Amino acid sequence: MNALVALCHFCELHGPRTLFCTEAVHPPSPSPPQPGPVIPGDRDREADREGEGLTMRANSSATQRADMCEGCRSLPASHPGFVSVDSETGIRYLSHQHPRQQQLFSVVRQACVRSLSCEVCPGREGPIFFGDEQHGFVFSHTFFIKDSLARGFQRWYSIVVVAMDRIYLINSWPFLLRHLRLTIQSLQNTALKVFDSEQCVCPQRAVRMNSAFSPAVFPHQRSGNAARSLTSLTQHPNLWASLHSSFSWLLKACGSRLTEKLLEGAPTEDTLVLIERQTEQEEEMSGWDGAEGGGSNPQPSQSESVQAKDFQFDDGRQEDLLGPKFKSLRHLRQVLGASDFRQLAWHVLMGNQVIWRGADPGLIQSAFNVLKALLPVGCVRAVPYSPHYEEAYRCNFLGLSPDVPIPAHVSSSEFSMLVDVLNVERGCVNPVSDDDILSLYQFNISSANTQPTDKGPTLLNKIEVALSNGNLSVEVVSLCLLCLKEEWMNKVKVLFKFSKVDGRGKEDTQKVLALLGATGPGEEDNVRLLKFWMTGLSKLYKSHLMTACRLN
Fold first, then answer.
1. Is the per-residue pLDDT at 426 higher than 50?
2. What Cα–Cα distance (Å) separates residue 161 from each residue in 7, 241, 251, 423, 445?
3. What is the 3-state secondary structure (H, E, C) of 369-434?
4. Which of 152, 225, 250, 333 has its CA 20 to 30 A from that of 531?
């Protein structure tokens, strides 16, 4: 992560000061060799020059550090600082009281002053974001540390994360907040123990109440202890080494958490929905962490648990599942047969609840993993394996153990489909491969639906053509399915804009359906599919259309 983490302190004698700073130094990119003679020793001196920068910076600021009080100083002037090397990337994490470069020094200095003076949140303790393009953007978290000898019995600190990428820093807000709070709480708890022990020995409140107050000698009335170091407040012998480890890990983990990906054209609806889900999950985790820090221990509701399972299901990988499993839609079609597969795919595309009941959760989840490729991400709500029935409004993919009964109103509904996975009884025969699913299981498909599924929707007809074409590989079929989904999602967007946003009548909507190619054979199925897929549109797209409509 191209950022810098610093611990700042508001000194009672000198104002805002930078105490400790950790920065990431990337390895230099290899340059082509230049023609000419190689002078012995030049390469060694060039390699050592960057490594000596930290010590040179510490020695050059020795004069300034002599004017510092104990509370403004972290490491001694002769201390070389801390260095950690990431063996995977070659990035070095350097920590000292100030950054190595003069330009970064002024940026961090300004961030320190602003975080402890004007840029504070209500209550003077908590996170805040500020900055500009010239001086960088800052995520700042201010907090208090208990001190029995300070004014108000506490000192004011802040941890700032400085970066030039505003979007990256804002997207990292939940992650930074969650982990910086852990560091801050650790410092506060350690200092609180020292504070309580000092108060037990000599209660300072009573001493101050009984002593005469003189403004001229107020800083000296506490025997010169107006500036105590953070090491003294916490009694932590390896405080700065511990902070170096925490800040270095934070820079590495935050940089690895978000990666850049080249997108050809605008992001798809699936990409937007995944981003929204990840953001919502991080906000919920951050909220629970904050509530736990306040002393409460909230338990997520049942609906929240289902949503969390759904998000985990979306991130599931086929290779992580053990035992027999379906590898692709074509494999599932071969096992079930063309007729049963079409009936199953029809229910999936219509948004009906698809229930798989069996004793092998890995097999059931693999079936869901391949079936969800038929739908936009926003339309997938899954409970991979549950000991009890879940209603259709909570999930359209439901896995059940074999002894779970299906409610009567569900088994008689035309909007649900049940796949019973039964173990095949075999005698003493040779063991079969996990890929031979038919020799291990029997699949019984049942549904109360009486509507024919052989006419439409048009999307299903095209999918079956691709699956039945043996000349197309599984990878080509996946890309074909992706293109078909994008084509129909564009139709969904047009219909949503026309019917929901503009509020056109039925006659005009019918003309739009004809224009989209959704009329003719299987028209009823096409319309049902389009209406169901509207629920998979991202919140960002819906709000954008609604806002544009109000502005017009």
1. yes
2. 9, 18, 9, 57, 57
3. HHHHHHCCHHHCCEEEEECCCCCCCCCCEEEECCCCCCCHHHHCCCCEEEEEEEECCCCCCCCCCC
4. 333
* Residue percentage of the chain with pLDDT more than 70: 74
pTM of the complete model: 0.56
C-beta pairs of 79-86 under 8 Å, 24+ apart in sequence: 80/54, 80/55, 81/54, 81/55, 82/240, 82/241, 82/244, 83/54, 84/244, 84/245, 84/248, 86/252
CA 20-23-29 angle, to 5 degrees, is: 160
Would you state the pLDDT for residue 45? 40
Over the stretch 187-197, which tens digit does the pLDDT of each residue have? 989 888 888 88
Judge whether 513 and 492 are in contact, CB under 8 Å: no
Give the CA angle between residues 314, 316, 320 to the nearest 5°: 170
Domains and CATH numbers, the chain: 3-27+70-206+228-255 (no CATH), 329-424+435-454 (3.40.50.12430), 474-549 (no CATH)
504 near 510, Cβ under 8 Å?
no
DSSP 8-state assignment for residue 26: P
d(CA 26, CA 378): 39
Answer yes or no: are the C-beta atoms of 57 and 100 closer than 8 Å: yes
Calpha distance 463→478 (Å, rounded): 10
Q: Measuring CA to CA, which residue among 8, 244, 258, 224 is closest to residue 111?
A: 8
d(CA 450, CA 447): 8
* Distance from C-alpha of 513 to C-alpha of 128, rounded to nearest angstrom: 49
Q: Are 443 and 427 in contact (CB under 8 A)?
A: no
Distance CA 157, CA 115 (A): 9
Whether residue 317 has pLDDT greater than 70: no
